[in-house]
Design goal:
Layout: H1 3-17, H2 23-39, H3 53-63, H4 69-76, H5 80-84, H6 88-94, H7 97-106, H8 128-145, H9 148-162, H10 169-189, H11 193-207, H12 209-221, H13 223-243, E1 249-254, H14 257-269, E2 281-287, H15 290-303, E3 305-313, E4 326-331, E5 337-344, H16 345-353, H17 372-377, H18 379-390, H19 394-404, E6 409-413, E7 419-423, H20 428-435, H21 437-441, E8 443-448, E9 451-453, E10 465-469, H22 491-502, H23 506-523, H24 531-537, H25 543-551, H26 557-564, E11 589-591, E12 598-601, E13 613-619, E14 622-627, E15 640-641, E16 643-645, E17 652-661, H27 666-676, E18 680-689, E19 694-703, H28 706-716, E20 722-728
Parallel strand pairs: 2-5, 12-14
Antiparallel strand pairs: 1-2, 3-4, 4-5, 6-7, 8-9, 8-10, 11-16, 13-14, 13-15, 17-19, 17-20, 18-19
Amino acid sequence: MTTTKVDNIYKELFQIVSKYLPDKEVASIKKALDFALNSHQNQKRMSGEPYIIHPVYTAIHLAKMKLDSETIQAALLHDVIEDCGVSHKELSQKFNKSIANLVDGVTKLKKLDMISTNSKMVKQYTKPEASRSASLRKMLVAMAEDIRVVLIKLADRLHNMETLEHLSIAKRKRISRETLDIYSPIAHRLGMNEMKWKLEDFAFRYLNPDSYKVTSKLVNRKRAEREKYTSAAIKSIEKPLNDNGIHCYIDGRVKNLYSTYNKLEKYKNLGKKFDEIYDLIALRVICKSEKDCYTALGIVHSKWRPVPGQFDDYISTPKENMYQALHTSVRGPGNYPIEVQIKTQDMHIIAEEGVASHWVYKEAKDSQINIDEFEKKMSWLRRLLDWHNEMSGDEEYLNNVKTDILKDQVFVYTPKGDVKDLPTGATPLDFAYRIHTDLGHDAVAAIINGKISPLNTPLSNGDVIEIKKSKSNRGPSLDWLNKDLRYLITGSAQTKVRQWFRRQEKEANIERGKDIIKREIKRLDIRNFPESKISKDLEFENFEELSEAVGVGQISIQAITEMINPVNQNNFSNYADEENNINRNNENIFIMGDNEFSIDISKCCNPIYGEEIIGYQTKSKLVTVCSQTCRAITQDPEKIIPVAWRHSESAFPSRIEIHAYDRLGLIRDITDIVSSENINIHSLVSQEHPKNNISNVYLTVYTTGVEQLSRLFSRIETIPGVNNVFRVYEK
């Protein structure tokens, strides 16, 4: 990059800040730039550009949002502690303590002392992932203390994503994954939609380049047609609004590429093509007042037929990130569905910039930023600090943030009318733990909107929840930590349950864990369970320690199932196949090292995806595949052929036997649960024993493997009257 281009970037920054900051503050920013320029002298980025380009662009992103002088200065200085050896004390002396704290909060730590603990049950591993978790934890805690920390971090991440092509493919994917998992949801939680969309699209581009290109081409191909339709829709609604005295600004906006991709995937499952999708466009109606918004809504609904169940009033009930608008879906011109958002100009600014819109410089004498409104509307920030004090494990802390704060939210009410935010999918039990730990521990029933409901019922917006406690302090159930049963969604509630079990007797915990593991391997009919190998793979010293972890709920039985069934799960479906050098003779199994054999699945043990398998040559060019525990395996080592499952999920038949008390509706309850897991039933036979009122139900189902089969067993066992569920083989 030439000196002229660098100078132009400096000029761009000062042209922006000069428009909204007084000369004194602009001079302070110039001082920070000079210090950063001197500190980063001779440093280069991977692209070969002078390093100073990065902090300047970070500052430009923030200046476009009209952030205060301290934030702009801290953005320019945000890497000097990490990369230039400048101390916190030196920054405090040359600038001020507030700026030094902001820089320290943003700094990415390369070396962190792992938190020590006396408990063997809490593990800290010196892995890159653990270090990143600790660094992200520090950022989140700093964010809770001063929201400007994360504003700088988001701008820093945005510029890094803009220049990501200069890094290796592995680093691009890691950084993009982190952006999609952490930074984009934080931007959303702060109401910064513009930032969120940009981060998502950059991450999408590097995580799934093929789908990114396809989506981009589809959107561009229909651009002219879409613009024509949008223009017609605007004209169609503009006249009736003006005729009724609603003078407003209307425009149409296409959803960002990542949102478009997700919507395309959703519609693909419904059999729709891109040409049939019109609600990729959202019309924005910007009114002068809140009263005009509601009047405009009535006019829109009188002009276009509303889609039932697709209306949300975020003006009277704002989202926790301060977002306000009226949302409705209607049948627009040509009877196509379009989304309409109605809001005031102030609401529109908040919708685009969120928290950042409140940091605009005020010409107050003390130049202080008023954060009182933030603290009232963003109680979730306080929870970041509470968890920091409660949890020793960095990865546990980060997982709780992901599940409890960064997921989409539902808003529910206590009987007194207090609003509580919970992640989508949360249950009354999550709600109970949000109110108080003891209420969660002793919860026995929930009343949702006046109706008694199970504790694992998913909550919806507007629900009123009352929790019934047991008369005695009975404590939580270990079933609540079983992910398959969906009692608890929030990580914070799961942590409280684990902590309760950790306080119980160690020997009792070990025995409880052994019983759970024994029961699981029995019902899955897993023979020769490798205790020491599984313990080692899960990073426990021995089977006793693993059993204790299962007994207190620190590790779920599903984690052990996943070790038996090592499926390579990916969030995107279009990655290139990495097994081009391995011969495929069957849709689900491949033979390593030979391309002339055919494959036959043994019917004696009928292995399913995820089980340890072995192949042996039965005919000239035929390999029969069995479970490694199958009794029919040949003992001739010369006939053994190495085989393995491909990393793709298909349906495999499994025969299940269920023992239960015979009652009306038993078969219906069983088939409902199987269907809810998207599992196909091949056959079902019921055998009743009238003398003892026992029924044996035999099912043949098609599952994706051991993990799904285990989840199905867990859910069937919750059916009233069911005693045992286990897998059987054909004789």
